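Trying the structure run again after the queue cleared.
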Amino acid sequence: MIHIGNAPCSWGAFELNQGQQPVPYSQVLDEMQAAGYEGTDLGDWGYMPTDPAQLKEALQKRSLHLISAFVPVNFKEKASLPEAEIRALETARLLSAVEGTSAFLVLSDLNGHSPIRTLNAGRIRPEMGLLPFQWQSYASGVEQVARIVKEETGIQTVFHHHCAGYVETRGEVGMLLDYTDPDLVGLCLDTGHYQFAGGDPVRLFQVFADRVRLVHFKDCDPLLAARSREEGWDYSESIRQGIFCELGQGDVDFPAVKAELEKIDYQGWIVVEQDQLPGRGTPLESARRNRDFIRSIGL
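Done. Tokens:
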């Protein structure tokens, strides 16, 4: 059975919120429940309670599950790994205490850290990427964190390809998966990020179906994507402009994505994400419309 969740980033609570304060987590959880969702991502560490009993109570009060937690890491720099292991384990222990081993640790690059990747999000050229010898080091770091998380908590790790990071394009997703052990690292496939990156999410499903373990439903406004490329927006400006629109308002072919999920008999979570800055948009109304859209395609 497929379950539908949402995430705090749809209410402005995420790592690239440009220092603005999002609404309280209690309001976000109340509105997720009201909009018809079954679960939530943890959001940035410290946004929701990090005491397992307190978090579990807050979720159970609203009949919500804890689906996953996002941990960005500067995998390009080996020196970042000791701290990354500490943060990943702390997060995984919280996931395990609240939800057991059904939750996912979502690793990603430290998005927005590289100036060239941030400036050129959505229009990455090969020369902006990692060199061949760097991929092995990068991927071994991902595996290292995933291994210690699995050994110590039983939590499964997925990697989130993401604009403004070093794993954005089709080739980069392929390199990361080629260099990592499928038993340790799955794929969190994000439809909107891959669409903005110039790819076809349906094709990505077809190529990497055996690695897909978590799915983010995110749409991408084609007119804003074109403006971003033409006017040279950086990733933050694209977010500020609303690049990730409500589901069904962009150019992601969600019925085709659903068909691919059915082909692999996907039995897991779809997490809706509509990244927007605090105070922007209409989060509750958007969450309701996004849930209605998903129902309209049979999910």
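The longest helix spans residues 132-153. Worth checking whether this holds up in the mutant runs.
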